[in-house]
Write a structure and sequence with these properties.
seven-stranded mixed beta sheet, globular, Rossmann fold, 8 helices, homodimer
């Protein structure tokens, strides 16, 4: 995603502490209190401009969603969605995904969404892919037993790599579509990127994997 | 594959017992004697007209190949390839793949190839797919520890199903290509079917999976 410099972004983020949670490490183990209920928590790692996580939160009011995005200039777009929709079951975190353990306790999260993650195509950058084993370790730590990762991408190389990485880690492949938009999968919520590229005829790959314990 | 009636097929098969092994249950545990060496044995289940297994046998003289095909009218084409090439490291079996344990001893086979297997698209026929768990059980029985299945197909539904079936069975996904003919995979030997359909721009999917013990 091309990043535009938005010098006003920090200020705007600070104005909405109810939506973009400041000092999220203080909420570790206390997300049920933040949402005011014990509904399952699903997080999206790399939430971008927020169309997916906002759409999911509208579609599933009985689930609490947390969208995680590093870039201020991007997360402000997700904030705009959230301001407009005023959803009580969605929060945003402006933090680095590599530090998830600082923000979530063991078994505090039920599901991780990865959508159109950066493919890092060079082999020397494999460790940065969000489906690399150190990330799978981190998700396991914060997920409930039998927690799931739902992953979609248009990037063939990243998808091939990720299915092998999931298998190597011992994750169970529960769902697989090699052409999501021509499948009978229902309830798909598209990301901005997905909308644009699937309209051009680009295939979307999707998988659901589950930790065995 | 469309089957043509070839009434002369039985007779021709009987003429070449050195190539299409009669009473193969008598060779169980003795394939090293049949080939006259201890090279690893790779089998192709559903060998069709034999272009793949013949090509592999030419490419890899240090491996012994056995092509298995149920239909007489089809295996005679594979026999023609073999007569023409006169390969010492290739044998054919005109038997039903569901009976592999009758023809191979435990750990007698190093690798199973499945190429463009019948997709059996209806859910009620899932048990007939060559990647269904009962088949995976059977391959495990005749394969060496850490034996492999190499599988390719153009059928998206069968490939999706098979990757899930492999995962459910606990097989390790070692290689995956979601578009074989646009990948940098080397040494691919095409089947007749693959040649025809990839020329039409059809994607070929390929995976290698390994038993953990």
């Amino acid at each position: 995603m091309r990043l535009r410099n938005k010098p006003w972004a920090s200020e705007k983020i600070a104005e909405y502490p109810h939506y973009i949670i400041p000092e999220p490490e203080t909420k570790k183990g206390k997300w049920a209190d933040v949402f005011g209920n014990n509904n399952p928590i699903h997080i999206e790692v790399g939430t971008g401009k927020g169309q997916f996580v906002t759409g999911m939160a509208k579609q599933n009011p009985e689930v609490n969603y947390i969208g995680i995005e590093l870039y201020e200039s991007v997360i402000v777009s997700a904030l705009d969605h959230l301001i407009q929709e005023g959803l009580p079951n969605l929060k945003l975190l402006n933090v680095n995904a590599k530090d998830l353990k600082d923000f979530f306790d063991e078994s505090e999260v039920s599901r991780v969404y990865l959508n159109f993650s950066d493919p890092w195509p060079k082999t020397k950058h494999a460790k940065r892919r969000l489906t690399y084993k150190t990330f799978l370790d981190m998700y396991k730590h914060i997920l409930i037993p039998k927690g799931e990762i739902h992953f979609k991408t248009d990037n063939q190389g990243l998808f091939e790599y990720s299915l092998m990485s999931f298998s190597e880690y011992g994750l169970l492949l529960k769902f697989l579509s090699l052409d999501l938009h021509k499948s009978d999968f229902e309830g798909n919520v598209m990301t901005e990127y997905e909308e644009k590229f699937s309209a051009k005829g680009q295939r979307i790959y999707r998988s659901e994997v589950q930790y065995k314990d």
